[in-house]
Each structure stands twice: as structure tokens, then as C-alpha cells.
Amino acid sequence: MPELLFVYGTLRKARDGSLHPFLRRQAEFMAYAQLPGGLYLIDTYPGAVLRPAAGQVIHGELYRLLHPRRTLAQLDDYEECSASFPEPREYRRERVGLTLADNSRHQAWAYIYQYATDKLCPLDSGDFSTFLPDTHVKRRSVRRIE
């Protein structure tokens, strides 16, 4: 069974594509997908939570990982949720259930936000790519991953 990854933020095929080249080398795009949950703005990057209001979804992309162990280890370090980082960690990687446009269901890894969201700005569209053009290129200093 292939290892799948759902991405909803800076690893997506964004209009600027600043972090996507890493994923493009490590995985194959399968489809656009939706995850039941809420999306929040944390500084200039998103956080997904699995506590959705009725009908709330997070839009993202589903990838098949070519080298799962190595790629997930690098992404865990990028997301600062590996054992190298102290608790409490901002994100955790977990398996989630997704729905594709054809209504098929898949299980995939996703990075889920762990902290309180009551003081964060919700991204009601559930789609971080609509937010990227104004912030991702101009103000975010990107940590490079190989």
C-alpha cells in the first residue's frame, strides 16, 4: 500500500511554488482532496485542526510518497514535530481520512496544528492557496529543505 501525504499549506503547488519543488522531487501528485476540519492563519502559514464546524473542509493536495521514510523524516523536521524538538510541539503528523473530487476516500499523513486557535484568524475558505499571493513570497522567510 503506498504512503500518501495530504498538504494544505506551503508545500502545495502554490502560485509562487517556493516550497513545492522539494515535494515535487519526493512525491507524485495524485489529486486535489478535502479534509474535514478548520484552517487557521498562524503568522504567515496555516494550521489545520480536526474540529470542524458543520460542513467545514480544508482544501489541499494528495501525494504518493516515493521515499516515504526519508521524506517524512525531513518534513517532520521542517514542521518541527520530530523527536529533535521539545514538547509541546506546534504540529503532529497523523493519519487522516480524505475525500477526493470523485468521492473516493483515502487515508494519508497530514500535519495537524496542536495549539489553541481561539486567538487565531480562521481561513473560512479552507484554502490557503487563496492567501498565498499576498504573504508567502513577500513576507515569509522560508526554511529550505532538501
From TrEMBL:
Give the highest taxon in the source lineage.
Bacteria
Query: By its UniProt entry, which Pfam families does this protein fall under?
Result: GGACT
Segments forming domain Gamma-glutamylcyclotransferase AIG2-like: 5-129
List the CDD domains. GGCT_like
Q: Which Gene3D superfamilies match?
A: Gamma-glutamyl cyclotransferase-like (3.10.490.10)
| Record protein name field | Gamma-glutamylcyclotransferase
